[in-house]
């Protein structure tokens, strides 16, 4: 079979794509590729100056590109609500919501609302943001919510309902695994809730091993090993391909998960891949959903 690349992205003219963390790395490459195919791309970013720089670069690469900015801090529910309110005012429809932003292996810290930083940013922030924007996607044919997970959802990963915020102990690798597993549990439960609506689907993707700024918080042992294994990783443009395929391929089905086709899914071209057994536990999906609504105060308009 032919390898799927950005050349396979259908025309996106007239479509609105909101991408979190779009000023750098995977998010930037995702935004640039969609803008090149005609989408109105909204860079939802925490740092407005970096967002402006990214928008300028995208416009240079693609003269005539339609790019706008939305300030968004996923560590603050107040910021998430304000961003969603502004986007709702600016756009009567959203075709693509790409939950890309994330943090990895951070030292123990919390969001502004007291959530463990990795779980709060990677999962709860996107859970709230998606819920507040979902009614802008529901009426739109072939609209999609794409959430970026990681190979890390398999590494020492579980949902620690007895200590979701890691208050009793903290392990940065396990906390990252919990957050990335949560991304997939969220996607599968969201797809179950969306299925009766037929217009909107939820999909997920992971970039394999990609050289991005996420690597800056590697723990000591991994930081030492990273220079050795880094040549095996791929660049951000290749790492963005699974997200782009999940977002744009007309053949994609709700609930599918895309990753690289190479060795151990660390590099290569995007194909449908399998996630862990834990990610498909329907009872855990439902329980996490209920807890996420309680923690964020965001109740979805489906269900």
Automatic annotation (TrEMBL):
> Is Iron-sulfur given among the entry's keywords?
no
- Supply the alphabetized keyword list: Oxidoreductase
Molecular function GO labels: oxidoreductase activity
Q: Which residues cross the membrane?
A: none
Whether Oxidoreductase counts among this entry's keywords is yes
Similarity remark: Belongs to the short-chain dehydrogenases/reductases (SDR) family.
Q: What is this protein called?
A: Short-chain dehydrogenase
Q: Which organism is it from?
A: Mycolicibacter minnesotensis
């Amino acid at each position: 079979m032919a390898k799927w690349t950005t050349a396979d992205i259908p025309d996106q003219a007239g479509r609105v794509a909101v991408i979190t963390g779009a000023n750098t790395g995977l998010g930037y490459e995702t935004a640039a590729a969609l803008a090149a195919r005609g989408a109105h791309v909204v860079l939802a970013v925490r740092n407005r100056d970096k967002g402006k720089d990214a928008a300028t670069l995208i416009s240079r690469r693609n003269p005539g590109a339609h790019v706008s900015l939305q300030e968004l801090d996923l560590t603050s529910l107040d910021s998430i609500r304000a961003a969603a309110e502004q986007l709702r005012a600016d756009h009567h429809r959203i075709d693509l919501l790409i939950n890309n932003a994330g943090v990895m292996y951070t030292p123990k810290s919390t969001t502004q609302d007291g959530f463990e930083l990795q779980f709060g940013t990677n999962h709860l922030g996107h859970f709230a943001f998606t819920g507040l924007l979902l009614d802008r996607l529901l009426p739109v044919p072939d609209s999609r919510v794409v959430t970026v997970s990681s190979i890390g959802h398999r590494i020492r990963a579980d949902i620690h309902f007895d200590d979701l915020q890691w208050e009793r102990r903290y392990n940065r690798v396990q906390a990252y695994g919990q957050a990335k597993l949560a991304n997939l549990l969220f996607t599968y439960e969201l797809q179950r809730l969306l299925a009766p609506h037929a217009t909107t689907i939820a999909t997920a993707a992971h970039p394999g091993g990609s050289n991005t700024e996420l690597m800056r918080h590697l723990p000591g042992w991994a930081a030492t090993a990273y220079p050795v294994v880094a040549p095996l990783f791929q660049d951000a443009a290749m790492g963005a391909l699974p997200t782009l395929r999940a977002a744009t391929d007309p053949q994609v089905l709700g609930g599918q998960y895309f990753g690289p086709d190479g060795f151990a899914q660390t590099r290569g071209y995007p194909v449908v891949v399998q996630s862990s057994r834990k990610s498909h536990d329907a009872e855990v999906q439902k329980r996490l959903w209920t807890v996420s609504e309680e923690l964020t105060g965001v109740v979805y308009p489906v269900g």
